[in-house]
Design brief:
The complex is a heterodimer of chains A (164) and B (274).
Chain A (H helix, E strand, L loop, with lengths): L2 H5 L12 H22 L4 H24 L6 H12 L7 H8 L4 H15 L2 H40 L1
Helix pairs in contact in A: 2-3, 2-6, 3-4
Chain B lengths: L10 H17 L2 E5 L2 E5 L1 H11 L14 H26 L3 H6 L2 H9 L2 H13 L5 H6 L5 H11 L4 H31 L4 H7 L5 H14 L4 H38 L12
Antiparallel strand pairs in B: 1-2
Helix pairs in contact in B: 1-2, 3-8, 5-12, 8-9, 9-11, 10-12, 11-12
The chains are: A mainly alpha (164), B mainly alpha (274).
Amino acid sequence: MSAEETTSGSTRIPREKIAVGPTLRDLALVSVLGLALQLLATDISALAAAGGMAGLYVICAAGIVLTRFAPFYLPSIAWISLLGIVATLPFTPWGSAVTSLVADIDFLALSVPALAYAGLALTEREIDVVKKSGWKLLLIAVFVLASTYIGSAVVADIVLRITG
Amino acid sequence: MRAPGSVLDMWRLHVAVLVIAVVAQLIDVQEIPIGPAAILLLPLLYAFLLSVLINPHVVGAASKFIRKREVKAASPMIVIAIMPFIAKFGTTIGPSFEELIEAGPALLLQEVGNLATVAFAFPLAIWVFKLRREAIGATFSVAREPNLAIIVDRYGLKSPEGTGVMVVYVVGTLFGTLIFSVMASLSASLGIFTPEALAMACGVGSGSMLAACSGSLSGMWPGMEDTVVALAGASNLLTYATGLYVSLFVALPAVEWLYKKARPDEKPVARKEN
């Protein structure tokens, strides 16, 4: 695994400094925010929504602990995604229980608080970048989306022709 | 590195986020239809816009309520707030694990096609538009939530790389369905791609991009609707299962390496998340 090499020289906070306690506290806070939004966004009962958010909390908390203490480094989101997959594998004894616990949680509503924090976190530096090269980035964005589509179509087309 | 003070100390920040998020959720999803596609307005966009409007760096008068210290404390909250989303997203992949294994080599290899973003968009960003480090965030991926989270983890959102990925994320959310349905119709009318390949390519982005794209293809080949939808769906599942790891371990290191080659004179800046 070349994760350590490829990340050398990055600006990441050393993981020894990940404060597990405060992070878990803040995670609890955003989970409560998330719960409120689930009640607005979905028709599920308060109990089901609380159960679902609690399930997600446990997955995230375990991911944070692994980020801090596992023998090799993976970003917290990679751990959390991996744990989410493992927790819902259908052939495991726990898979179907976890799946039904979190199944009704609304995807889109979960992303709303993160974007609200993001808008509040902006400073002059980021605003300057957008002012200076915003239109360029807009064009790049359209190009990124279009070229991803064409690139994938080309590779799929070639592989389909080879494999029949 | 933690923000000073406790949760209570930062109550202004969290109350602001709660109010903004509730308002955004109440406005709900709005669609402006354009032909088979639509401009999609999502709660997360309203949340972003509303919070920009009460950011003291943008609107000076807002500093009465949100001060510089709240802005500082908001930054580490971004990655924590995205965690439940990523967890939920993992739990949608697990149950489909067996389908993914059965998906076959074309679907798996097609993931490599996502790297076309790097091959085409990165040179454009660097040599045509003369962008600096924001090019890294903008061109390493198709900028959906997992990719956004990777950039936030590595550089922070308050960085040139963060600005780059954020712009592509917002454009993708707003115009993604439009771009994908136009691209699908265009490439279908070229007549050089098989419908199966174009259907698989529909899955590289978000769920709404997938819907618009496979909708356009079904319009072109009415008899193949079931095949198109099934392949596009399997591809989308795979993108979400593997995309995070491909962009973390392949695309981002590749773009970083290319950037060092393209701008050898630029001193690596010692930046810290502040």
